[in-house]
Give the backbone structure.
Amino acid sequence: MATIGDFDPLNSTVPATKIELTVSCRNLNKIFWYLVFIINNKALLILILPCFLPPTRSRSLSISLFTVVVLYVQGIGTKEWREFGRTEVIDNTLNPDFVRKFVLDFFFEEKQNLRFDVYNVDTRSSNISKHDFLGQMFCTLGEIIGSTGSRLERTLSGIPGKKCGNIIFTAEELSNCRDIATMQLCANKLDKKDFFGKSDPFLVFYRSNEDGTFTICHKTEVIKNTLNPVWQPFTIPVRALCNGDYDRTVKVDVYDWDRNGSHDFIGEFTTSYREFSRGQSQFNVYEVKKRKEQGTLTVTLLSFKVESEYTFPTSLHYMSPYQMNAYAMALKAVGEIIQDYDSDKMFPAYGFGAKLPPDGKISHVFPLNSNSENPNCVGIEGVLEAYFQSLRTVQLYGPTNFAPVINQVARCAEDVTDGSQYFVLLMITDGVISDMVQTKEAVVNAAALPMSIIIVGVGPAEFDAMEELDGDEVRVSSKGRIAERDIVQFVPFRDYIDRQGNQVLSMARLAKDVLAEIPEQLLGFMKTRDIEPQPALPTSSTTTTAPLGLNNLCI
């Protein structure tokens, strides 16, 4: 239970942990190229060349294997696989260690299915299907995190009759450190490794792990044909270098670059972020330790500075002085039209997903105006005012539970089933439903009442589960009961955003689609209850309330 000490309005603490995944592969398949000549209309196989050559001092022939790993995540509702991201492409090795990480939100209570596909990139096309498939692996994010040392190694599969090699994952929870370090290094008197030249040196940075292993975190550029390289300044997040632990060991390897990927090891040294932060001094001249040869090689830190990373507000609830946020736009677009059918213009407005003052108690249905006895707001402008004020007093929090708000409105609708009132619940959310089973049951129950539900999804989240609630194709069911009517209309707001930034046009498009089904849903309820239109009554007795639900989950 939250306490007063950790209650902090406007500080979103969504129960998700940022996890950084590092990926490596071992013993990948060689890809063979075939040279074929046509002689007298007959094919003659002349030469077979593997895409990867074993380590050799010969530089006269090299064929490239360009490896990339693609991560796919599975949607909760449709089970569709969607590309999440790609590593960088590493050439000329069957054992790549990728520097580019995957950063994912880990939800302990959810099963997060992942798929990793490995490809040999052999064209310039960004269409991954155009490249050579080397293998794949399925797992959950929880499996990686729950493995010993948060390190998981699995066999790649997907090519019948072939061993595809292994894929290795290392997971680490990211700290909240937002600092960025910029540094420059040089080296002196490196070993000569190339037969016809000097060396082509580059540096590889690793951070240490608790089990004694190391995770790659940066590679410098290659400086050609020199024993005294000066590398360009580079920038690296401090949490990538040490994840906020300033005394964590940082290992730096020095290599001579080779075209065929069999880079020659020159030496290594260890340091830490705290040592780097001393800047250029005698403490940051490192003697490079070699495996066999004797001699003094040094790497020197030329410069070091650290800055805080400043970012634009990423919350979809962010209140810009120049334009409405996505929540306000959706609310205004739909509300201003539907309020014309509400005679008293009084709207009960609820939030769901927040810690409430004064003690930080978590609530999944609370009045935006903080008045539990009378949650009504005057007009859409009143709802907007209550929404903005609520953002200043509550702490946004997950998970995203829909059922409490639906049930709250359903209780109101249960009291008026004579056709004199019809309820429209507008829910605006930027999160994936956490209580799908309970929400389905709430929708099935609500389908027998005079109410409709409009769900507007804002932001980039996956809304597959929402489509399941929108019963256009298949009616929602729960515990063997099928909803007697389709009462849910879902739309993702991003589909209606005008590319030219015209908010008025975006809002008009949204309102047109989300309200299109309401008349048919209202008439459908009245017909099934044999309720016929009655003569107009005085204003006080013809009120149609339109509750509004706003999901205050912040991502």
User: Anything to note?
Assistant: The mean pLDDT is 82.
